[in-house]
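Regression check, manganese (II) ion case 287:
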Amino acid sequence: MPYRELYLNPQNIFLGRTTPYEEAEFALFGVPFDGTSSYLPGARFGPSLIREASCNLESFSLRSLKDAEDAKVCDLGDIAVVQGDVYQTMDRVEKVVAELNQDGKKSIMLGGEHTMTLGALRGYGRNLGIIDFDAHMDLRSDYSGQQLSHATFMRRVVDEGSDILQVGVRSICKEEYEFISQEGWNYVTALEIQREGIKKAADKIKEFQKERDRIYLTIDIDVLDPAYAPNVGNPEPGGLTPTQLMDLLEICGKVVGFDVVEVTNSGRMAAMVAAKIILELLCLIEV
Ligand code: MN
Ligand code: MN
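Current build output:
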């Protein structure tokens, strides 16, 4: 092996290696955008922190006895975001994801703020089943006068007609509670998981998947307890453990794409656990 390959590292890419696009089964990209952040900013640094963390974890999984390195992942880099313009940035995400989907790739999006998930979902079109792991519901009709923000985007998803299952909820406003009470909303709270274990959530996930052909996973890393992932935009006590989350993700094998969002740069732990989740998913997702 030439010294330039032995002693020089490529730039910050996921797991330190990339598969050519044509051969890839997964297409990974970052969205370094945190323009609507309302509390702790820094999610724009999430993609590079998650990549850095991925290069410092072992890729072999004792959960699946597979190696994430064997997954064919093309790291495409980051979307050229327009930091002040959530609409234009989201439009770019939508266009890229639509293209990846057309090319038969499963998308992996590194956030960035959660709002960008709406762009990815639009890229996949309608009739999608969405499994959303999040401390929050993000279902406000507007927030501080904004129709489109990290606190409202899931309401826009509802407006556009996709089905959603929310897991790990523990932070909700009165407006959201009234909304989900009227609609017969499909969700499992973090409190139920902490008190009764993951069985109810696991059953709901299985049932949700059974009824739908195309599943998209979105993981707002604040679904984890701040003890495990403190570096997030809106930390919320009383969350899941990484093991509980990964046990639930293990049931989600048939997905068209997924994202991990809201990792900020106030430390390394949220990025480490985000990278770990992606490595496990690369072993678990059927291609
Ligand atoms: Mn969220
Ligand atoms: Mn959240």
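Comparison notes: The beta strands are 26-31, 60-61, 66-67, 73-78, 106-111, 129-133, 163-169, 187-189, 215-220, 257-261. The domain at 3-284 is CATH 3.40.800.10 (Arginase; Chain A). No diff flagged against the previous build.
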